[in-house]
Amino acid sequence: MENKKPPDLADAFLEWYCSKEFIDEVQGDLHEWFHHRAKKQGYRKARLMYFLDVIRFLRSYRVKSIDELSQHSNHIAMLRNYLTTSWRSLIKNKAFSIINILGLAVGMSSFLLISLYVTHERSYDQFHENGENVYRLKLSRYNDGILSTEWAAGCSAIGSALNDNFPEVLDYVRMTPSNAVVSYRDKAFREENACYASESFFEHFTIPLIEGVDSSVLVKPYTAVISETTAKKYFGDEPAVGKTLRHNGTRDFEITGVFKDVPTNSHFNMDMLFSFETFVDIVGDDVYTAWDWDGFYNYIVLADGTDPKTFESKIPDFIQKERGEQLTEQNHMIEFELQPVTDIHLTSDYMMEFKPNGDGEATNFLFIISIFIIAIAWVNYINLATAKSMERSREVGIRKVMGSMRSQLIRQFLVESSLLNILALTLSIAVVFLMLPYFNQLSGRELAVDFTSLKFWLTLGVLLLTGAMFSGLYPAFVLSGFKPVAILKGKFINSSKGNYLRKGLVVFQFLASLVLMVGTLTVFQQLRYMRNQDLGVKIDQTLVIQGPNVTDSSYDDRLNTFKQTLTSFAEIQSITASTAVPGTQPPWNAGGIRLLEQGQTEAQQYRVVGADHDFVDAYDLDLLAGRKFDKERVNDQSTVLMNESATELMGFESIDEALNRDIFFWGDTFSIVGVLKDYHQESLKKTFEPLIFRLIPNASNFYSVSISTNDIPYLIEKIEDEWKAEFPGNPFDFFFLDDHYDQQYKSEIQFGKVFGLFAGLAIFIACLGLFGLASYMTDQRTKEIGVRKILGASLASVLSLLSKDFVRLILVSILFAIPVSWFVMDDWLSGFANQINLSWWIFVAPSILILVIALGTVAFQTIRAGISNPVDSLRHE
Amino acid sequence: MGEFEELVLLTVAVLNGEAYGISIAKVIEEEAERAVTISTIHNVLYRLEKKGFVRSRLGGATAERGGRNKRIFSITTTGHAALTQSNKLRNRLWNLMPELKF
User: Is the pTM of this model over 0.90?
Assistant: First the structure.
């Protein structure tokens, strides 16, 4: 229906600004004109023009005067007065205001940055439209009742089996990675983020297809869907659909669709998807029902309203029914857990994740830190405001005598704290903008401020409101509670209650700062410890080349030529081919391995490394017993090496016992010929894992080249030339092993840096507060100091007199901080297999540092008071 | 007195006790065939009132006006004199105009 009235909004505006003197004629005329115009031009136009007219009437003589504006409500007049007095008090105490605003701004910026980060971390996979019903099946395998592996990508059969047997499972998606060299004409790239995926992938995950149809792109074998960026990479601006990509130089895939790049806030990391039917065509359809074949991501889609916990509890019975017999036979147990797809990023860290996931605990921890920091800033305000209450007391007294009510005084001081908070918030928004690029570098995320998002403004609003309330309320109550008679008589006693509170807050500030400092120190100590340990394996001066994917029957010869040429270079000591290199978990995880004479129930899981003859020497591994792989022996391919942990898992009492024993490995028999000392295949966060080394002379995953040269770029160029000659069609990709190994500590390094940054900020804010407090205190005691000096007090005694109180407070916070930080950091360290001891100095050093910083802050004020001429201070007043 | 001021003052005189913002606007719109904005007319009326050419009183609220009063303007003797004078001036000048042929 058409609205036949002038717009309310415009009327309200008119009534708000227009003075009483004019409102009758103006509004009356405007209404009449509105109807007149509506008859001629219609209501729509008339309503629009009405707005314009209202604005046209905005002339200074028609606008209400401030007095008239406040005539209707005393509040506005009072607000004006509050603002004036607040502003005056801000200007009057410039140092205090700057301390407060600076502290608050730093606190708010930290809080805003961290909440941006936390919001981002929590936003992962929220974009899937049916996300709340999609779950990934995590697989845990137990041998002998002991947990052996936890897979993000479990066995192949489970998804479809659940789909077939439970009506509440509507559909499933099965995926398995396929890292390959993919080529189009002369362009070849190593695709690290490629997967085989079953046909309904695009129906359940909201990754929009730019070309192709959701339900049909991945149906046929040898079809592929690629991301927008990947399409650009291979085909430039030409259409991708219909073109053919070659996979590892052998298989051709037809492109049936192009999908929008997967957002960064997704646990998926994929540039290319091949149809799962292709995989079946390659390996045979046993894969559909393989229960012992791991490495498959299984996603299931539950019907609306299905309780995941209830459903999860039905799985063990189903497994028992389906697989019970075989599992008991092997003394094996499998367990499935439903991971909501939206929770994967923050909770999942198992074998074969798409990409390193976030750490939910660290994220929450960071959030708590940010609240601490802003709380410290608020505390500054409370402290300074109450400390200065004496100066304001006269104002309060006069106001009360003039008839001010307590509620009005409270309002006055709340306005003052709001004003300060608004100034700080404005400053902090600017700071966030400036700091965001650095923070992104630190956090390894791409965060941005979204000004259009309601949530952002809401956060700001909440921050402002809580800040103004939290920091303003207590001083407001204290100040407004003064008895006017007492104040005006000049009797003013600083209440002991307020004193305790103030001291308690200072203790809290320094406690929080100290805990953060101890935390930072512990994180970096632990990192240093881990990086300086003898790994038992040589990782420096080692260049690792990613092996070729595109090969043919001549591969063995080519590999040999390549190795021989490279070892002939003076700068190269050795080259070894292997299926795994230190710094990552060996991807080959084999179950069912046992001593030949043992029963099936005693079989265990081991990580397997396939390597050539040179592996042990090239990596400088210690041989504890037996021998290495021997080139002279022809049938050495049926021998294995083991590390100590593997011999233990196999049940040998001593390493010598293991020599020359036969083991059963996937249907074949291997003889143990040597035992290697445990070395850190992975970061020191983890314990030693049982490793079995098999002789695979033509392993094609990694070639590790041990080098010694000052001209690395030149050497790399030389190697690349050889590479191109031997393995044409394969991209030359390499990395340095020490960098690769260090990648494992990335999250710890990040954590340490973030920790350190915010610890620094917390100390800064706390010291600002201390500075303000100290300057106030010394001001208060100017006269006392003057008298003392006249009576013969030395500078030193004045200093100690003034610092005594602060030192006591810091000592108390140290006393509290030590157990708190010990408790927190001990818990953090327990996540590491190889951890440092929390030695005394980790607590003492930050304590001394904070004492020095605090004393320095105070000293600035006290020395000034101490060296002042007593005559000046006594003349004061 | 500006041209538009004169026009408004003339209209006030014509409307004889019925002159207020809207009625004036309507007359000018119809007779002079020019688009007017209410705010301009108001501004001119206040200016005229300040010069003492018109006087005003409140009254005559209607439902269409949302119950708001009109400010009704009527011409003063000074206003009338000013109009007459400007009219006389014009007539004089007209009479002085030679017979031009176009």
Answer: no
